[in-house]
Amino acid sequence: MLIKITVENFKSxxxxxxxxxxxxxxxxxxxxxxxxxxxxxxxxxxxxYGANASGKSNLVAAFAFIKxxxxxxxxxxxxxxxxxxxxxNKERESVFELQFTVGDTFYAYGFSALLSQRRITEEWLYxxxxxxGAHQLFVRExxxxxxxxxxxxxxxxxKGRFKVYSEDFSGQDTRLFLTEMNRGKRxxxxxxxxxxxxxxxxxxxxxxVINPNVGISNTEAYYNDESLDNISRLIQTFDTGITDIKTxxxxxxxxxxxxxxxxxxxxxxxxxxxxxxxxxPSIQMTWRVEGGFFNIRIKENSEPEITTLxxxxxxxxxxxxxxxxxxxxxxLFDLIDMLLTDRPDAVFVVDELExxxxxxxxxxxxxxxxxxxxxxxxxxxxxxxxxxxxDQSLFRRDEIWFVERDADNASKIYSLDRFKERYDKKLSKxxxxxxxxxxxxxxxFSFKKGE
Length: 451
Known about the structure:
Blueprint: E1 2-8, E2 17-20, E3 34-37, E4 40-43, E5 45-49, H1 56-72, E6 94-102, E7 105-114, E8 119-128, E9 134-141, E10 147-148, H2 156-169, H3 177-180, H4 195-206, E11 207-210, E12 215-217, H5 225-236, E13 242-250, H6 252-258, H7 261-278, E14 282-289, E15 292-299, E16 305-313, E17 320-321, H8 327-340, E18 347-350, H9 359-372, E19 379-384, E20 400-405, E21 411-415, H10 427-432
Parallel strand pairs: 5-19, 5-20, 11-18, 18-19
Antiparallel strand pairs: 1-2, 1-6, 3-4, 6-7, 7-8, 8-9, 9-10, 12-14, 13-16, 14-15, 15-16, 16-17, 20-21
Helix pairs in contact: 5-8
């Protein structure tokens, strides 16, 4: 499970900011929103409020940036991703760190980089202990050879193998060592190095980032008739007009006619990079991009298998394509896997969850999500403007967060839990009145009327 994310000098975040899933000891309501791992209580939800351009989407972007860097190294476009509010930030390190659990083991993984130079300056992985201490698992400084922590005891054979891996990697300024240690490496005979695949796989497989216009998932839901029937029945409960969902096989040429060719190329480049890292003989993903919904399966030495959705409405004898649906219905397809998935320990990170959805539909979706995963290690982190869900008893006070720009136009993250309020206070009213900040501050504007 996610414990916290820390980001510094990235987009609108100047100084170090963090969002924490650690539960407040003061809160006693909604105890089922917590999961206890060893002696630590972790929250299952975090809802992030803020004005437009406050930096909410940049928090989601930080999750996506970490995953993208693990796949392909520092993205070429990242040279301008430092916080450009101050000139000296161009030569200052940007820092990214995730703290999370795999089973009952607590990890902290992160890296720092000079983004303007597209150069990684440090990378680290620690095991976090319940007494507040930490055991170093590996550290890499600049272009130096990565080294293991003193607590990692290896046999002579394992030491020799690791030395070869680390020396071969030295000088790689744009790529991460954690990625290299998962590129075709096998750890069956090296259990003391299992932290490499454990940390890597958790970040890559368990953090699912969903943006308003692009959704990516490795779900099985759209690949078999039984799950499609479940999706059909679930979609009907949201009053979309859809009564049945099927898939139709298409070619790459047909796909290129439905969405721009450069997007198609980007999708297959992403899948190819994933296959190279995982060293698997096949890969499948579901992509929702503006105007299309596609399931893609690639096997070695075979043509890609591509299917798209075919939708039925009521008693109509005609088929409808995904592109013909309303924005709200398209948004539901982005989110529906969150209700049906049985993947434990997943963390869904959703930007503008309520985009194109009616407030009542947003509330219903959230209630269904919590009901479906009531006793499962599954978390939801999402940004929103929907203030009405503050007063639906959906979230604990320590699950509500705000992002606000300061006088220097830098984003700050803070929790509702820092404010002392009566438990019966109407939170949405106080929020809109500016009690907690993180709302738009408008300047006066007057139209000049012609003579």
